[in-house]
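Below is how a single chain appears once it has passed through the pipeline. First comes the sequence as given, then the structure the pipeline wrote out for it. We keep one example in the README because the format questions we get most often are answered faster by looking than by reading.
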Amino acid sequence: MIYRPRRSASASRYALLAALTTSFCLGASVPLFAQAAQRPQQGAAGKAANPSRSASPKRKAVTAKRKVIMTLFPAFALDVGNTRLAYTISVNGWVVDTSPGNTNGHFSSTRIGEYIADGDNIVSIHLSAPDPKFLSSFGVTVRSSSNPKLFDYGWDASVPHPHPPLPFTTEKHFTTHLPQGPWEWQTAPKITLDAPTKAAINAHLKRFYDALDSKNVDECVALFALSNRDHAAALGMSAAESDKNSREGWVETFSSPGWHLRPIDYPHLRYDLMAGGRVVHVLQANGGLPLINTPPDSDGSHTGIDVFLCQVHGQWAVVR
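Resulting structure:
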């Protein structure tokens, strides 16, 4: 997933993805994966670790005027009502929203189309109270363009001895049908993060890094082929149109003056499993920036690429 400081009005693949994955929090709309480095990691007890929203460097949201594209894919959103509680919410193993909790309250609305499964869907919710003096109720709803309440859950702080007591983690289910069928990540095998697997992941990342660093448009289109095809099916696009949009996006990205990448510290990468262990999110060791970055430009913004990989037919592929 890519965040770029500049772009034209062309309706590239990334403009289309923005329609599927956008988060709205306290009046600001940003690409969902621009929050990826801020997401807490789940421990054995499901507790969030350092879920700070302020740690991320400045990134500009991707915006563009574009024609309306009719798609097969229904819109899905996850809404969290105003709450002071700390929470982490995952959909089918993807962390989609998190808040450290605060005294002023927090609400959000996140588009989650890329994480909705064809069939059974699992919503995992972890709630805690950073400060017991500021307890508040909590409510979350998942809605689609055809159903305003696919799923909802609430925790009421106003009743005596609310149950379950904080902190706690709960899982809820709902079922939906996707016209295009399952995403590739749904049927990918589970990943075991042993030394040979990490070495294979790093080899694929190096291929990706070299293609970006040398501005190899054809190689970048090929490396994103799985993700492009996945979204083309959901958006009602042909493979040729998907490749054309991807190519235009990379040409535009590489046109940035002085394009070059920061080096990757391969021996010290962080590998976080998502989607029930079928997808690996690769991060820099400190988790503060996406894996691949350009140096900041004059106003502090930069191009960053978060990398999510899965295995398809025994080969590693960029799935998001």
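Residues 2-180 form one domain.

See the next section for the split statistics.
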